[in-house]
Amino acid sequence: MPDTVPPPVPDPDAASPSAVPPGAAQDAGLALVFLTRVPLPLTGPLADGAAARAMGWFPLVGALVGMTGGLVFAVATLAHLPPLTAALLALAATAWLTGGLHEDGAADVADGFGGGRDRARKLEIMRDSRVGSYGVLALVFSVAIRASALAALAGPAGSDVGNAIAALVAAGALSRAGMAAVASRLPPARSDGLAAAQGRPTAATAALALALGGLAAVATLGWMAPAAILAAGGAGWLVAELARRQIGGHTGDVFGAIQQVGEAAVLLTVAAWAAAVA
């Protein structure tokens, strides 16, 4: 999620004695507003720590985003469109629903890590609204890899569209499950960025996110869930470790990269596993 665009929610530091009491419903609603374009009204100042706690519900929002893409995939298949076209339309729908939040973050990370000579320059490039060659390539490969994996899962003429829908839901949840864990263990790379303003999630929040992501994977993928969970976890760890080495911590853009790489890893893993047992 890009550092340069603040979330459309009240300032978490604005809590007061009259603030809305903390609760799961408020935290989940905040997660939905933070990660999507859904105009859910949030009245009154946020309770203390709500922005950090909302990260625990990110996988649930991710599952809803994946389901939206899955429905578009199903409609496109019913319209007799080729699987690859249906996959591209599904990804376009998820990007529209999230406002391209994660794609923008991944592109910024690719530009910063690829073009910056030192930590300061990398962070400067990541804050630049312009997209460079590394960012363009990252977006192209992200869309191409995910779309091709979805098309393969759907099978010839979309005969196995249910596999693609299940994979989209699981990938949407799992690719967002590790964000709270990364934020709880890796410090913000900036003191004034969006990631720093959001606050540090507790271990309980990270556990909630991981549990929701795992449950979504098991519910949709069944016996393939463990492989998908490992793929998402490995991808998230690799991006987080790269960020630690490159800029000394996480940013909103790093979270975007974690989501994109994690989603691609899950879709590729499920597609490969399905092909192996077919």
How would you describe the overall organization of this protein?
By secondary structure, the chain is mainly α. The chain has one domain (50-277). The protein has 12 helices and no strands. It has helices at 24-35, 50-53, 58-78, 83-98, 101-115, 119-127, 133-154, 161-185, 194-198, 203-221, 225-247, 252-277. Mean pLDDT is 88; it is low at 4-20.
Please give the number of β-strands.
0
Number of domains: 1
Shape: globular
Instruction: Summarize the main sheet.
Output: none
Report the sheet-strand fraction: under 5%
What are the secondary-structure elements, in order, as H or E? HHHHHHHHHHHH
Helix/strand structural class: mainly alpha
Tell me the helix content. Answer: over 70%
Number of helices: 12
Mean pLDDT: 88
Between the first and last Cα atoms, what is the distance in angstroms? 37 Å
Radius of gyration: 18 Å
Poorly predicted spans? 4-20
Short key terms for the protein model shown above:
mainly alpha, 278 residues, 12 helices
Please outline the helices and strands.
Elements: H1 24-35, H2 50-53, H3 58-78, H4 83-98, H5 101-115, H6 119-127, H7 133-154, H8 161-185, H9 194-198, H10 203-221, H11 225-247, H12 252-277
